Amino acid sequence: MNRFLPWGLLSLFALGFLLLFIAYPILGVLLRSFIGEKGAFSTEGFVIFLTQGRYLEALLNSIILGIAVTFICTLVGVFLAFIVARFEIPFSNIVFLLPLSVLIIPELISAQSWIMVFGNNGLITHLFDALGIPFPRFYGWFGLIYVMTLTYYVHIFLAALAALRGFDHSLEEAGQSLGTAPLPTYIRVVFPTILPAVLSSGLVVFTLVVGNFAISIALGQRVPLLSVLTYRSFISELGGNPTMQSTLAMVSILLVASVLFLQRWYISKRDYQMVAGRTPPRAKLKGWKSLLAGGSAGLIIVLSLLPAFVVLAGSFTYARGPVMYWGQFTLDNYTRILDFNLGVIGNSLRFASLATLFGVTFATLVSYLLVKKRNALSSTLDYLLLLPLTISGTVLGIALAQGFNSGPLVLTGTAAIMVLAMMLRRLPFGVRNASSNLHNISNSLEEASVSLGVPPGRTFFNVVLPLMAPGIAAAAILTWVTTVAELSASVVIYQAGQETLPIQIFRLISSDLMARASAFGVINMIIILVPVFFGIRVMKVKLFSS
Amino acid sequence: MKKALLNLATAATLSLVGIPIATAGEVNLYTSNSEDSVAMVLDKVREEAPDITINVIAGSSGTLLRRIEAEKNANVADLFWSSGFSTLAEFADLFVKYDSPQVDNLLPALRAEDDPWTGTNTHVMVLMINEDVIEGDVPQSWEDILNESWKGKVTMADPANSSSAYAQLYGIYTLYGEEGVRKLAGVVELQGSTSGAYSSVAQGEYAVGMTMEYAAQRYVAGGQEEIELVYPSDGTFLSPEGLALIENAPHPEDAKRVYDLLLSHDIQAGLVGLTFRRPSRADLDDALKSSGLPLMNNINIVDIDQGKAASDREMLLNLWTEARD
Question: Does the ipTM surpass 0.85?
């Protein structure tokens, strides 16, 4: 049998798919940003960007916000990781819930819940009002930085925790036995070694902040931000300007791509090999130190998980129009959904299950091709798979909507484009999850099967696939979680009748109808939580192994 | 609860397989109105025209109109309910004129007799006041807030993004000309979206917001006592909304019956109680009173030519951008 078949053909298929649905739409955005209103080459879009104050202001705000949030996330994340790794604190077993909180509480819902606490008609706002103390403005920089920090610090926490746990304690002991005090030892020995992990997760946070849509639009009314302007340019009630949409999309691609480039360059220059050493013992703190360390770690944890509970309480709270009556309970918010909005739940389930099915199938295939059957196309595939990382959901949505609204393949307005957008956003991570234990599967197993006369296709299904299963399960769960919560791409491309849960929540938040939005939020979290719980408890899937 | 779960499961299954569409005596209604408004209409139609089944496609008016446009060659929609006259004008070639017998009962400004749509309700631009944060006297007119002493205390949505904010800007331009626009630009702070204008006043961020009557009234009716509505004494502006019959609709005759019902006394009275959107009928004084809204003849209205407002848009927005720099 020809060596090129079937894997070469499949590589070709994967390449074609990525070229058509990732490279072509993004290239389209690039080209359209240089086409003026009359259809000729023009740099008008960029001239407007640079000369009309609000665009540059938005770019600058996005960068400032990115830096501020990344910085505070680093402080919070490293601090918490350090406490958890080094000290015994009272409720350290709750800490394992933290990474989950990021999964089960979508960004939109954390924004929503903090608005219910600090914002219009908020719990704390009312409390302060009752005490006669004016509460500071939550909408704007304060709210943005606060909510984004609590949403994103977990990324840095996880990276720092892994690095700290991998740190060889004897290095630290060596430092101290040579007469350095504990604190300088930390600063000179421990922190430099965890720095690469922290910095690269910090850059992930930066790109998440810059591309963030849900929190930005919910809290950034007063602060023009790039992602919100990009969205508005596309969704404007009064018809948008394609050149400006593409220009804004282009600027945000450039911003994120340059950050990713910086990250790769930085990591390539630093390389610490940690010999698997002794994990440092966890010290027991006494007295005020214990209170301080435990208390501050506890506070961070409580604040991270609070949104889920606020939304839960809000969903049972009686409301008249936009005004919430905390303490008066009702089931109205749910019965309304049962009466009117089952279709929304159906849409979410349908789109997310299709996106997960296709996404995971594709990710499994591609990861196998990339790890086990490398050929001339593999490196191109590698690079194409990085592309979705450089673009925010909003930009992906615009790229797909513009790229497929005419010509031989018209997808704009169909359910297919919704599924496609949700699937593409998660693809790079899916491939990473699916291939996580592929490296450990010895080629000889497969070769043995083939040499015994089993065709390569059947060998793949009977031998390799079962071994890949844990990685695939993790990929499936994580893809499901992110697609059910997906807002920024779908909100750009959805059509009437295609509303998903996050889109509905977003629309209700915009009309200031928080109680009703909460009921949808709770349903959204349940839909996310069920497979996660099932995967972790029943199938023993390790979601955070890599 | 069990039944609810069953419903949920059925809906999930149905949406997975796709629901087949029946054909006898039905109307496909594309609507941007809230679910409870739609539910009320459905109940009423079931009562008055039990032979008609209404299939509802809900969404924001922009996405719905674009969908109707995309389906132009294989029409599904029969009726579109509702959007602002200026938005409807942009999509005018999707609609066909229907002279409803109910039109005679409407306020003259909402009859839209030369257009392929009919007014269902109208927004009235108001000043939404938060008494907790206002210092000094409550402004009573547009002219009051153009005064420099209000700088930073008044907010509105961005006229470039929001059609209602544009209607406010155009009204100021009609009343006070270019100078009024410049004064407003110097005083007002902009919100990115329409909802920002009223939610930020309710929140207490601003003392005064330029917004729509219904949006502000929701807070008053909800029990937020510090919110007050001021109908400016120098005259306010209407921003009417309408419904339209789709050209080449698959079920035109039944659609016309629903069209008449949407303009009927009972439905319009019910809707104003639910949404606080001022109805287009002239005979609903009782319903207005019980919703807490003032009667139309107690409000001073400035006549706005909607066509001219649309054609002046680019000029006025340029003036606005320049005045804000």
Answer: no
